[in-house]
Amino acid sequence: MMRHTRALADLDQDIRDHIERETRENIERGMSPEDARYAAVRKFGNVTLITEDTRRVWIPLWFDQLRQDAHYAVRMLRRNPGFAATVVLVLALGIGMTTAVFSVVNAVLLRPISYPQSERLVWAATTDPVYHEEIVPRYDFRAWRAQAPSFERMVAYVTADNTIATTDRAIRARVARVSDDFWEIARPRLALGRLPAPGEPNALVLSYRLFEADFQGDSSIVGRAGTFDGGQVTIVGILHKDFHFELVPPPRRDTDAVDVEAYVPLEAAPQDTARSRGRTVSVVAKLKPNVTSEQARQELEIIRARVAQDSPNAYLDKMPLQVVPLRDRWVGQVRLTLWVLLGAVTCVLLMACATVANLLLARASVRRKEIAIRASLGAGLARVLRQFLTESLVLALLGGAIGLIAVRWGLTILVHAVPGAVPRLAETDIDPQVVGFAVMTSVATILVFGLAPAFSIWTTELQEAIRDGTRMASAGAGSFRIRRLLVTAEMAIAVVLLIGGGLMVKSLWRMNAHPPEFRPESILIMKVPLSGPQYLEAQPRHAYTDELLRRVQAIPGVEAAAVMPHYPIRTGLDVKGRRRQPQAGIPIPTTLNATSAAYAKAMGMRVVRGRWLAESEPTPVVVINQSLARREFGDQDPVGMQLSVQAIAPDPRVPFYVPIVGVVSDVKHSRLDTAAEPELYVPYVHVPIGSGIALVVRTPGDPVAIVPTIRKMMADLDPAQPVYDVRTLEDALTDSVAPRRFNAFLLNAFACTALLLAVIGVYGVIAYSVAQRTREIGLRMALGAQRRDVVGTVVRQGMQVAVVGIIAGLAAATGLSRLMVSLLYDVEPADPQTFGFVAAVLAAAALVACAVPAARAARVDPLDALRHE
Amino acid sequence: MSTREDRDRLELLQGTLDLLILRTLRPGPAHGHAIAKIIERGSGDELQVEQGSLYPALHRLIKRRWIAAEEGVSENNRRAKFYRLTAKGRKQLETEIGKWDRLARAIAGILRPASDAEQP
């Protein structure tokens, strides 16, 4: 590079010197100065051409042309900043959103599990048909591990929320109890300390996040002793901060996707030799190389048959077995959602491309004269195309760059706004694949839509364009039609997306439609795990609950204080006198709410029949809710009937009947998006099982104010119990639909973008049309047309395009919204309210888009227009 | 004014012009105008090469490092760009002269055959 600059730098001077010398020679030969110079110049040749040829020795033509094109492109864009800014922003929007969704898809779906040889990891489980859970009895796990040759390693684990306490603090965390093989499968890096040795009991390993957040990164805790749910443990190591628990957590209905933060050994529990439904684990195994899941599954079936012979259990033996790759099991639930999102965002990208094409085509039409002149001066088709392509490339690169910056912000917002909704979302980041994707998209956009203007120009007759300006309007008809079609398509897509988003918003709204007595914003929930050996028996738990309720009720400002279990208790129940279906050997599980007298008041439940629980119930009684009443009794009055409730029976084998004393209205206390579950309410003193409790407190206003008081009270009662999950019922319910809100948020973001693009599209088309027909408008006005008529024409033209698009969109939406049925709540897919609203919004937006060009048309001065070329 | 035809003619002589320039510079460095004059006179004024066409040729030769350019002062104390042969160029010149001689002999062998018999 340097050489050529040096060599070429003096070229002009050298040539001038040369000609100077020749001139002087000619003068010496006797010519007159003018003749001398003239002869010298003639003899030299065409200086411009020579200079050009010399340049070519160093710089190939294409490079020079590219530089020129780029330079020219930048200059053109600088002269039309509004146009350039619009195009760049539209591109940034399209590319940015697509890249953001893609990076999520990349992190969640495409990125493999980070454990070594993760493609050999499989999930093995039997499915419980009644409880719809995938479990493996521990007994079976031991047999599988011992006897199955297909597996290199097999790990059993359970996850639960437990209390970890050291001398100075108690925290609640999601803990995984893992068998030894877990560390062999995961092979984590450590930040501090070591991993537990095989078979080492009571070794606690913490995640880096927990270490930093709850232990302030104090490295002296390694080696320290602590308690884990009351039992002794030693903290042996801290995991590296990039390590995550990536085995599938067992599905829990009521908890959000929280990361596992601590690991303890799964107890050997040698005394537990019974094969039962009670002691179950989840199992992930690593296949030996070249073994398929199917082979493994068949092997396990054989082993199960053996186990069934030795230790039969009618319930367990009937459950179907599956062995699937772990990746598939992990992403199964979200795959559909993510692909739908990717589809939606691709629509938006296409719309962005269409809008950009529109704008480019409009600009190109305006520049036809310039192009025609360039073409006739010797630039070939290739040259002109190349120049257009360069302009488009500059726009695309700018758009892509801005898009990438926006993606970074967008992702930060996404991850912080709804962290639990999508697994592994927190691991999303802009990595080389994502950047590559963004670049590829930009380039693809350009190739498709950068060339369109050039081709559209070329097909018109260039000579005509130079000669006769009036031909412009008609000759552009072809491209105009295409652009109108594009805008119509944009409107249709915007309608579809907006309807989708609108239906989801309406679903969320319907979910929140509570009866007036139910005020979740005034109900506070605080959970206490009551963990530790001193609370294993029912009596100490009840004593704690009694005392806590007494104290909390006494706080001024508390309208009602009650309790419920902190995790739902499920029980089988039978109606006395009713014969059980022979095939259903297992009773249908129902939620049992071990609660207290003030619960109905706290939750705003109405008593529909009979009565609610009294302060003191010497014998066990039960109250059921409307859902349960409907399910078991239909229209019959349930009061007085007897129920056998397994969970409260002193001896589970002997039916224990309690009378139903009342029916109450349904309330939602866990999930917002399902109808209230059938539930029965029993005074907690009569419920022997269960562990922790959730305090339910109702206050007149915002309950947050009394939280510190209650905390202090709980600390006084028993300082070793952490209080967790403190929030209003409203927050809990809202969180329960976090995935839905996430989807709705995204869909609506897309929809609004689509709307914006459609509006820009309409504006672009109409504005261009007005600009082209200025002369015609002037003519008509000179011939007597009123401004009113002109405005009417313009608006009519714009609305024509828009209305066709809206109708097409409504038709498409009618079909497509049926696909969304599973995502909707209490809303018809063809909900007329939503459809009508969206149509109105789009029509109004289109009207606004036409307004500016229409106003401009009205302001046309007929004399000016006719004079203007 | 040079037209496209002139440029075509130049193309044919491109390699030859390069050779002539190299030979011209063998005795010692010279500036562009001098080179043009030497070629003109040396060919007995037969070769009327467009003087300007020297410059692309000179730059080609510079690019291939067969000649080098440097600032200098001409005989009447005026600024001039002098070109001189490099060692590589010297070697190249010998090669090219050899090739040219062989080519000339070969063509002459056909144009003026040893026997007097006319070829139809």
Question: In words, what does this structure look like?
Answer:
The complex is a heterodimer of chains A (869) and B (120). With 869 residues, chain A is of the alpha+beta class. In chain A, strands 1, 2, 3, 4, 5, 6, 7, 8, 9, 10 and 11 form an eleven-stranded mixed sheet that branches. Chain A has a six-stranded mixed barrel with strand order 14-15-20-17-19-18. In chain A, strand 1 (121-128) and strand 2 (133-137) form a beta hairpin. In chain A, helix 5 packs across helix 14, helix 18 runs antiparallel to helix 24 (738-772) and helix 24 (738-772) packs antiparallel against helix 26. The model of chain A is unreliable at 251-256 and 470-475 (pLDDT under 50). In chain B, 57% of the residues lie in helices and 13% in strands. Chain B is built from four helices and three strands. In chain B, strands 1-3-2 form a three-stranded antiparallel sheet. In chain B, strand 2 (67-73) and strand 3 form a beta hairpin. In chain B, helix 1 packs across helix 3 (54-63). The longest helix of chain B has 25 residues, at 87-111. The N and C termini of chain B lie far apart (41 Å). The model of chain B is unreliable at 8-12 (pLDDT under 50). Chain A binds chain B through residues 3, 7-8, 10-11, 13-15, 17-18, 20-22, 43-47, 49-50, 53-54, 56-58, and chain B through 1-2, 6-7, 31-33, 36, 50-53, 55-56, 59-60, 62-63, 69, 74, 78-81.
